[in-house]
Specification:
The complex is a heterodimer of chains A (378) and B (609). With 378 residues, chain A is of the alpha+beta class. Helix content of chain A is 23%, strand content 32%. Chain A folds into 2 domains: 222 residues, Rossmann fold, CATH 3.40.50.300; 122 residues, Nucleic acid-binding proteins (OB fold (Dihydrolipoamide Acetyltransferase, E2P), Beta Barrel), CATH 2.40.50.140. In chain B, 68% of the residues lie in helices and 2% in strands. Chain B is globular and about 70 Å long. Chain B is built from 24 helices and 4 strands. Classes of the chains: A alpha+beta (378), B mainly alpha (609). The complex binds adenosine-5'-triphosphate and magnesium ion.
Chain lengths: 378, 609
């Protein structure tokens, strides 16, 4: 990553309550603190309605926060209108100007900034080339495919060389295959240009593959800010563990957490697992098990559980298994299609202790997953 | 990557440096930007001076001691009570007949399988461009005491003056706009609803009664209200066709121009203002609310077109009305070339000589120039109002929209009298002339400033409506994208918004031209010997019984209007020679600007051919 040394974004206590909303309800964004390092690719991830777009639009200047501060490189952004902020935004709907050609769309921002009018043609051409849009300059947005339109939108934002790039679900209108390709291109481009990027999505695969760090949000607050691998393996809460990837949460009343570790007796074995610092009492803790870190073998008699459902997906097969600790989801890689376990089969289970994590239940019951449904739905 | 390395001269610091130029202040300050303040100020000034102040003057005058005397007179005198009753009766009968005509033509277009539908459509919208007096005068020639048809063909001494003639003239003048609205609604009705009703066992008549009519009810209601208001506010037709049947607008006109009694004029016109505003409020807060629910989204399938015996009867009725319209317009043209239309039918060019080279030429030029000044201003201010309402003033917007739309809701007579009251004398403030006299003999520029103001206020509402409806179809993220690329509000408006709503702007402009050229009731109070306006010249000719001259005026006026509209379209087509953004049915971005549906605001001119 090129460190341009600019684009250090700081959000402090950012709060937004929309007018005409129930004053008793929590604000759309509730006291957000965030440090985005210069050149970093940061993703806001969370369920629908958690305040991602609102946060992004406050940074862009399209919404005014009720409280809090936004600075970029120590310059207060809140006193600047959107057009004076050193940022460019890529919209979910692309928001291309339909009456301007592709070239004029990309040149639009450069023409407004007098100091950049010289060399405008070259800059636009280069931007178009870098987006594989050579030769499209004379076309109009309605003559492009959705993917091409999105490239134009990207080129239009990038050509401004802003300190900060803002993306609001820019890929959600594309089909799955193309989305993956665009994901790679955005990542590559951002790495090379080193522009600080704030990216909103509710697609975890997008967040995992693009981000330097992920911010997981839930009803206006931050649940966790961490690198993708940490968010997956060491979620800060049951909510995060549940939201990112799939997981089963088992109650383990005999757990004895101590100093970040915990000893648990699970499926006839004593294991030692990592524990969240707040997971101090067994009866308020849950053990998170990812479906791929549990192995399933058919048992002649007894065993640890009974297969309740079998879902064959080609590359994997998902088993929902009923155990004494609750329902567990197990996912087996590269299954033999001829030898799937039938529903009702008794099985023995073994978990990879290193891949499980003991979490506090969390005070807010509303964010707690429905334990029965967790394994089945996610 | 190449994007960066290719322009190394670009200092990476440039962006943050940009930030240091911002104004100081708290978060709120980001909202207050100069172009917004200026445009709000200009709009308020235009509406305040051109609409609110004059109308308030009418109110104040009516509330003054003399005014209250006149009010007592109005309420107490049986003659005046009859005038009020006449006005209401006229409004109701025009509304009923006009609505029936509009529905008849819309029904034929959408539900019948009959020939010459296209021709019928064109004939039905012809009256929109007709100047005031044209219809009424032609009716007098055809059906008056010495009518070419009544006396000449049937030999009956029929007297068209009065309620019957007025109803016919007004209904024919104003039904086209309602027809266009209904036509749009009926075309958007989803035929699958009919199919659903049929599959549930309902017959044609029953479907019409229980499915179609209820869905059209809001459209019918608003058409009725519109016709009612237009009918009671109209001045030209009662002056020509009224006879002994006096209505409020004519009474107010006579009070001012005949008796020089401005106070009574104000009181009479005020009693027009009250029902007009009530209807406006009803329309805005009751009928419009219902519209949303009654028309389903995208129509699917094709409606069943009827060819039954009943259909042919309905068709015959429509054809008869269409023939009447054709005869009336033929009379106008023929009358313009006849020595004394209906009496001495010798061919002559003297009427056109009079209009084109005599006194009329002055009026022709004055009228056209003033329309050409007022119409673009009305279009521009209207679009700015629309922009403010939709995009910039989420809270005060509706109020602004309301005031702007009053420009059309306030009867012309009221506005005209208001201008007389407000601007005949200079407006002094602390001994200093703030606004010089704009009306009457001593007015600046021969009163043309006042006239242009009235035209501006009168034609702006259509531009506002057109602008609002097309702005609602542009996704706000288009504006935000522009801001995010560094454009301030004024730049965004100029480079993005204006080009995108140009079709709507043109529709508004076309309407404004037609309206400015043909409007009479406010203008007739404002003309001075220095400023001649064609419509008030026509009034003088009709008054003097010189119908030939009046018809020639009407012909010339219609030609000018059509010519100007054609010119506007030509210019527009030329400028958009490059691929127009006719996106409509594409992807999400496309949703930004679907083709603008022709808005039909109150009293609008159709923009489709
Ligand atoms: N203009 C508005 N007025 C009132 N409430 C709003 C407005 N915009 C958003 N909200 C509310 O604020 C909350 C956060 O909305 P926001 O758009 O930020 O969610 P999001 O995280 O972007 O969701 P999604 O993933 O669905 O886009 C929601 O509860 C939403 O209903
Ligand atoms: Mg969102």
């Amino acid at each position: 990553m090129v460190d341009r040394g600019t684009g250090h974004v700081v959000l402090r206590g950012l709060t937004k309550r929309y007018e005409n909303t129930d004053p008793a309800a929590p604000p759309a964004v509730d006291g957000l603190d965030l440090d985005i390092r210069a050149g970093e690719f940061l993703t806001l991830l969370g369920p629908s309605g958690c305040g991602k777009t609102t946060t992004l639009r406050m940074v862009a200047g399209f919404e005014t926060p009720n409280k809090g501060a936004i600075t970029v490189d120590d310059v207060d952004m809140l006193r600047l209108p959107p057009n004076k902020r050193p940022m460019a935004m890529v919209f979910q709907s692309y928001a291309l100007f339909p009456h301007l050609s592709v070239f004029d769309n990309v040149a639009y921002g450069l023409r407004i900034d007098r100091s950049r009018r010289s060399g405008l043609e070259d800059a636009v051409e280069i931007a178009l080339t870098s987006m594989n849009l050579t030769g499209f300059g004379a076309r109009y947005p309605h003559q492009l495919s959705g993917g091409q339109q999105q490239r134009v939108a990207l080129a239009r934002a990038m050509v401004m060389q802003p300190s900060v790039l803002l993306f609001d679900e820019p890929l959600s209108n594309l089909d799955a295959k193309f989305r993956e390709q665009m994901r790679r291109e955005i990542r590559l481009l951002q790495r090379r240009m080193g522009i600080t990027s704030l990216y909103v999505t509710h697609d975890q695969a997008e967040a995992m593959s693009l981000s330097d760090r992920i911010v997981v949000m839930n009803s206006g607050r931050i649940e966790q800010v961490a690198e993708p691998s940490e968010v997956y393996t060491r979620p800060a809460s049951v909510f995060v563990g549940n939201f990112i990837g799939r997981a089963s949460f088992l109650s383990t009343p005999d757990a004895r957490p101590q100093g970040g570790r915990a000893r648990i007796r699970l499926f006839d074995r004593d294991i030692e697992v990592a524990a969240h610092p707040d997971a101090r009492h067994a009866d308020t803790a849950l053990l998170m098990i990812r479906p791929e870190s549990i192995s399933v073998t058919p048992a002649a008699e007894s065993g640890h559980g009974i297969v309740r459902s079998t879902v064959y997906l080609g590359a994997t097969v998902d088993y929902e298994i009923e155990t004494d600790h609750g329902t567990v989801l197990a996912s087996v890689n590269d299954p033999d299609a001829g030898a799937l376990l039938e529903e009702g089969t008794r099985v023995r289970l073994a978990v990879d202790a290193e891949r499980t994590y003991l979490l506090p239940r969390g005070a807010d019951t509303s964010t707690e997953p429905d334990l029965e449904a967790v394994g089945a739905t996610r | 990557m190449a994007l960066l390395s290719a322009s190394p001269s670009q200092p990476t610091q440039s962006a943050p440096m940009k930030t240091s130029r911002g104004p100081a202040g708290g978060p709120r300050r980001a909202r207050a930007n100069p172009s917004l303040v200026v445009s709000v100020a200009v709009v308020c000034l235009v509406l305040g001076l051109g609409l609110v102040f004059p109308v308030l003057q009418v109110l104040f005058t009516a509330m003054s001691p003399e005014g209250l005397d006149a009010v007592g007179d109005l309420v107490g005198s049986p003659v005046n009570q009859q005038v009020v009753v006449n006005t209401v009766v006229l409004g109701l009968s025009v509304a009923a007949v006009g609505l029936a005509l509009a529905f008849l033509f819309a029904f034929v277009q959408t539900r019948l399988d009959v020939p010459f539908k296209r021709t019928l459509h064109v004939i039905a919208i012809v009256p929109v461009v007709s100047p005031p007096f044209a219809l009424a005068t032609a009716l007098v020639v055809l059906f008056g005491r010495n009518g070419v048809i009544s006396q000449g063909i049937f030999g009956v001494p029929y007297d068209i003056y009065g309620l019957d003639g007025l109803t016919l003239a007004l209904a024919l003048s104003f039904f086209p706009v309602v027809y266009l609205t209904l036509l749009g609604m009926m075309q958007r009705l989803d035929p699958s609803l009919d199919e659903a009703a049929t599959s549930l066992g309902a017959g044609r008549g029953r479907i019409f009664r229980t499915v179609t009519l209820p869905m059209l009810l809001p459209g019918l209601a608003s058409g009725f209200l519109l016709l009612f208001v237009e009918a009671i506010a109209d001045l030209a037709n009662p002056l020509v066709l009224g006879g002994d049947f006096t209505v409020l607008s004519a009474r107010a006109y006579i009070a001012i121009t005949g008796d020089y009694d401005v106070v009574s004029g104000a009181v009479f016109s005020l009693s027009l203002l009250i029902p007009a505003i009530l209807v406006f409020l009803l329309q805005r807060y009751w009928v419009d609310r219902r519209k949303v629910f009654s028309v389903t989204g995208k129509p699917t399938g094709r409606p069943h077109l009827s060819r039954s015996a009943v259909a042919w009867v309905v068709y015959a009725l429509a054809v008869a009305v269409a023939l009447l319209i054709v005869v009336i317009y033929a009379t106008i043209v023929w009358g313009a070339f006849s020595a004394v239309p209906g009496v001495n039918n010798a061919f002559t060019l003297s009427h056109f000589e009079f209009v084109l080279f005599g006194i009329g030429s002055e009026a022709m030029i004055d009228t056209t120039v003033m329309a050409l000044v007022a119409a673009p201003l009305a279009g521009l201010v209207g679009v700015v109002v629309a922009y403010l309402v939709v995009r910039k003033l989420p809270r005060t917007g509706p109020a602004l929209d309301f005031v702007a739309m009053l420009g059309i809701a306030v009867p012309g007579t009221v506005l005209g009298i208001g201008f007389v009251l407000a601007y005949r004398a200079e407006n002094l403030f602390g001994g200093v002339t703030v606004i010089p006299s704009l009306v009457g003999g001593a007015a600046v520029l021969g009163g043309s400033v006042g006239i242009v103001m009235v035209l501006l206020v009168r034609s702006m509402p259509a531009a506002v409506r057109a602008g609002v409806s097309s702005l609602h179809q542009i996704h706000p993220s288009i504006d935000e994208a522009s801001a995010s690329l560094g454009a301030d509000d004024a730049t965004t408006f100029r480079r993005i918004t204006l080009p995108l709503i140009r079709p709507a702007l043109m529709a508004g402009l076309t309407f404004a031209i037609a309206r400015s050229m043909t409007t009479l009731s406010p203008i007739v109070f404002l003309t001075t010997p220095d400023t001649k306006i064609m419509t008030s010249q026509i009034l003088a000719e009709v008054d003097g019984g010189r119908f030939g001259n009046a018809f020639a005026y009407c012909c010339v006026l219609m030609l000018i209007v059509l010519g100007l509209i054609g010119l506007v379209r030509l210019v527009v087509r030329d400028r958009s020679a490059r691929p127009a953004p006719t996106i409509g049915a594409l992807t999400t971005t496309a949703a930004a600007v679907p083709p603008t549906e022709t808005p039909v605001p109150v009293g609008a001119v159709p923009t489709k051919e």
